[in-house]
Amino acid sequence: MDSLLSTMEFHQTVPEQFVLPPEKRVAGEINTSVSLPVIDLRGGPHCYVEDRDKLIEQVLQAGKEFGFFQVINHGVSEQLMKDIMGVTEEFFNMPKEDKAAFYSEDTSKTNRLFSSTIYGKDGPRYWRDCLKLACYPVPETINEWPDKPTKFREVLAKFIVEAREVSMMLLTLICEGLGLKEGYFEGDVSSGQVLINANYYPPCPKPDLTLGLPPHCDRNLITLLLQGEVSGLQIMHQGRWVGAAPVPNAFVVNFGHQLEIITNGILKSVEHRAVTNSGAARMSMAVFIMPTMESFISSAKELINEENPPLYKSFLFKDFLRIYTDLSAKRVDVMEAFKVNG
C-alpha cells in the first residue's frame, strides 16, 4: 500500500524506480497539426440513423487511417459520465485503509488496486495507480466491486452496460461496412469479460523522466476511453506522436489486436501511451471488450482471397494473452509472433 501514488501527499522528486532509461523517455516533437477524427453517432445504440452508410464510412476511414477516433452523441448521458468520474475520483481519494482490501501486486488477480505497471520482470515502473475490475455481466460481478464510496457500485453498474452498448454498436457498423455476416462480432469474440481500468496519474515533478503508460497496443477487441479534462493520451501516427486532446463528453475509441487480426490488417491496432504533467492530476476510465478465453480467433473468411491471403495465424485467445504478456505488450514483437511465417 505504501507504493500507491494516490496515498502520498505530494511528490517533490521522482523516486528512482520510476525514472526511465533515456531511450524510453518522452522525446521528439508532438505533431500538433493532426487531430483525431470526431464522429457523431447521432444518439447512440438506440437511435435510428438515416445516413447509416455515411456513418459506417466515417468509422472505417478513421480506423484505417488512425486506429483511433472520438465519438460524441453516443447515448451515454453527460450526467452519467460525470458520475462515473466523480465516484472514481472519490475512490482514489479515500484513506489508504479504506482501499487496502483491494490492493494487490498479484498480476493474476482480475480485481485489484495497484501502483504502476511493470512490463518485464525487471522493467521500470510507470507513474499511475490503477483500479482494475471485471464488470460484466453485472449481476455476476457487482459484489466483487468496491462498496466505497457509497454510490460506486450503482454508478458503475449503469455506466458499464451503456458503454458496452456503444462498443457493440460500433462493432455492428464495422461488421456491415466490411461485408461480414450479420452478428459476426457477437458471441465468443465479444462476450468475454468487460474489464475497466480506472487510472489515476498524480502530478509528476519531472514529467520528462517518466511515463504514465509505455507505448503499447491493447490486447482485446475494442476499447472505449473516458479521458476526463486533462490531456495525457498520445497516439503513434505516421511515425510521430499525436496528442488526443479531450473533447467534452466524448469517448476515445481504439481497436485492439484482435480486431486487427480478424479484419486481416484492414483495421489497425495502434500504439499509444500516457504522458505525465507537473500541474494537474489526470484520471481516465478505459473499458475493454474481451473475447472469451476459449474464443477461436482467425482472420474472417470473407476478407480472405487470392489477392489478400491471411496475414495472421489462428489461435485461442488465452494463448494470445500468454504470448502478449511474455513479450511485454510490444506491438512489433506481438504481431510478428502471430504473423503467418512469423
From TrEMBL:
This is Fe2OG dioxygenase domain-containing protein. Belongs to the iron/ascorbate-dependent oxidoreductase family. The keyword rRNA processing does not apply. It comes from Rhynchospora tenuis. InterPro entries: DIOX_N, IPNS-like_FE2OG_OXY, IPNS-like_sf, Oxoglu/Fe-dep_dioxygenase_dom, Plant_2OG-oxidoreductases. GO terms for molecular function: metal ion binding; oxidoreductase activity. It comes from the Eukaryota. The keyword Endoplasmic reticulum does not apply. Keywords: Iron, Metal-binding, Oxidoreductase. Residues 190-291 form the Fe2OG dioxygenase domain.
